[in-house]
Design a protein that fits this description.
With 192 residues, this protein is of the alpha/beta class. The chain has one domain (25-178): Rossmann fold (3-Layer(aba) Sandwich). It has 4 helices and 8 strands, in the order αβαβαβββαβββ. It has helices at 3-21, 28-46, 60-68, 120-131; strands at residues 23-27, 52-56, 76-83, 95-98, 108-116, 136-145, 162-164, 185-188. A 6-stranded mixed β-sheet has the order 4-3-2-5-6-7. The chain is globular, with a radius of gyration of 17 Å. It comes from Halomonas dongshanensis.
């Protein structure tokens, strides 16, 4: 067996072990219910505004996909890619990979992401939207992590239905070392 194949198998075993030992903090049923509540609130606020939704890649992909199918009004979708984690467990400097294509000027904008942790990425994206002269800017995140380390004191998402304790979490868009974004719920590894 080649060294590359051996490393892949060790990684596979390691990732399976992480999931097997993880604590399920929020079940898939609870996530689905939270997305229903979020969709209703967004519909009430923006159902007649022709908004544009910007998915924050990669974390926001699953949340955005599940959220958009619950919205029964016309909207546009785009994405942007700004990250601080780059497959690491701790965030670093903000890195912009892709800027959005649909212009924000004069538009009602909704930024969709997986989690509001410290908020440095979200704060930078909000500043970008302001500079782009969006008519209004709202944020939708699946999970808000409860702690007092927000990049901007008091930073809250406009739409958020779930909170988690101050632990490293993965699943439903959030990753563990690049893996398990596809986990059906919100999980925390033992010891983190």
């Amino acid at each position: 067996m080649s060294k590359l194949n051996q490393e892949a198998l060790e990684s596979l075993d390691s990732m399976r072990e992480v999931m097997a030992d993880a604590d399920c903090l929020i079940s898939q049923a609870e996530v689905e219910s939270a997305l229903d509540r979020m969709a209703q609130a967004i519909t009430d606020d923006l159902g007649d505004k022709l908004p544009v939704f910007y998915c924050v890649m990669n974390g926001g992909l699953i949340t955005t996909g599940h959220l958009l199918t619950r919205l029964g009004f016309p909207l546009e979708v785009d994405y942007l890619h700004a990250t601080r984690y780059r497959n690491e467990l701790r965030g670093g400097e903000l890195f912009w990979r892709v800027s959005p294509e649909i212009p924000m000027a004069g538009r009602h904008v909704v930024i969709v992401d997986d989690i509001l942790d410290e908020g440095a990425t979200l704060s930078a994206i909000l500043e970008y939207c302001k500079e782009a002269q969006a008519a209004s800017i709202r944020t939708a995140v699946l999970v808000d992590k409860c702690h007092d380390r927000k990049a901007v004191p008091g930073l809250k998402a406009d739409y958020c239905s779930l909170e988690v304790a101050d632990r490293y979490v993965f699943g439903f868009g959030m990753d563990y070392k690049g893996y398990w974004r596809n986990a059906p719920g919100i999980f925390a590894p033992k010891g983190l």
